[in-house]
Amino acid sequence: MPILYLEMHPGRTLEQKRAFVSEVTRVSVETLACPPDSLQIVITEVPREHWAKAGKLLSDS
Amino acid sequence: MPILYLEMHPGRTLEQKRAFVSEVTRVSVETLACPPDSLQIVITEVPREHWAKAGKLLSDS
Amino acid sequence: MPILYLEMHPGRTLEQKRAFVSEVTRVSVETLACPPDSLQIVITEVPREHWAKAGKLLSDS
Amino acid sequence: MPILYLEMHPGRTLEQKRAFVSEVTRVSVETLACPPDSLQIVITEVPREHWAKAGKLLSDS
Amino acid sequence: MPILYLEMHPGRTLEQKRAFVSEVTRVSVETLACPPDSLQIVITEVPREHWAKAGKLLSDS
Amino acid sequence: MPILYLEMHPGRTLEQKRAFVSEVTRVSVETLACPPDSLQIVITEVPREHWAKAGKLLSDS
């Protein structure tokens, strides 16, 4: 049942995403004691002009 | 006030989305006793390479 | 794979929630052509003092 | 630590988004007494055919 | 239509939340040119033991 | 900047949550090449009567 949402900037390769979901699933199974096929991961890529910190768009920082 | 978020893969037609929001609103009004115009539905399409299950991207499954 | 999130005020009975998830799953399967066991629904109850419209907390409206 | 998510239709200019994140950060710092660089804002643009109210897609309204 | 989600630690007073939703609505209307009653704000309070940064729960920092 | 959201049932211990955030941060840094202090993780515990699969509340399954 666990669902994991990752929000990050665009730019990682498909290989990085493969490694991310594989490793995060592995350590989640270890630490949360949940079966691997119960865990879903959804990735959202947020462009820098849609992400702000300290009042500034990251595309402007 | 209820807000409903649907996350699914791309691929459904506009007609399917019309039927989905119409039917889900109808049964929500019936079961939750809320007025139709109080219910908003937001659809997010998540590509298979951004959705993983059991440690694998669905685009690789 | 579809995941549905419902955000609403507290106050519905367990029976209403049972009816909601059953009916919404039925019409989602019909309109989105997805298998029933692929659909998960997560309900979040948001108290009125944590929900605002037109600049006012609903607990103050 | 506060994180703010804005969901809206496409169509605002980059200038509007700059003004939004700047002003919302300013008033959040004032009202929530949090340091500016602790606040992140994520903007999601949802097309009208993916947003429904009262059972209708906004692109059909 | 815009929906705003605020995630923060528990601890702010009801007065602070009133001021937050009022001010954020005001500046959103100004910067996004949306009518006040179209904007909803949902607040979620996340305890420090459920929020982590740099690999540590904030309740442990 | 990455933000990770975990949704799961209640029941894990504080120790399990500590191990989860520590390990997920470690493997995220390795696979996404992001600095540890840029990653935030937010945990939400969803009771079984608020989580449904195949049209049934998990508290009824």
Number of strands of chain A: 4
Q: Label the CATH architecture of chain A.
A: 2-Layer Sandwich
- Number of DSSP helical runs of chain A: 1
Element pattern of chain A in H and E: EHEEE
What's the assembly state of these chains? homohexamer
Largest sheet of chain A: 2 strands, parallel
Task: Draw up the topology in text.
6 copies of one chain form a homohexamer.
Chain A: E1 3-8, H1 14-32, E2 40-45, E3 51-53, E4 56-57
Parallel strand pairs in A: 1-2
Antiparallel strand pairs in A: 3-4
GO molecular function (chains A, B, C, D, E, F): isomerase activity
Active site (chains A, B, C, D, E, F): 2 (proton acceptor)
Protein name (chains A, B, C, D, E, F): Tautomerase
What does this structure look like?
- The structure is a homohexamer of 61-residue chains.
- With 61 residues, the first copy, chain A, is of the alpha+beta class.
- Chain A has a single domain (3-60), classed as Macrophage Migration Inhibitory Factor, CATH 3.30.429.10.
- The first copy, chain A, is 31% helix and 28% strand.
- Chain A has one helix spanning 14-32, and strands spanning 3-8, 40-45, 51-53, 56-57.
- In chain A, the strands form 2 sheets. In chain A, strands 1-2 form a two-stranded parallel sheet. Chain A has a two-stranded antiparallel ribbon with strand order 3-4.
- In chain A, β1, α1 and β2 (40-45) form a beta-alpha-beta unit.
- The first copy, chain A, starts with a strand and ends with a strand.
- Chains in contact: A-B, A-C, A-D, A-F, B-C, B-D, B-E, C-E, C-F, D-E, D-F, E-F.
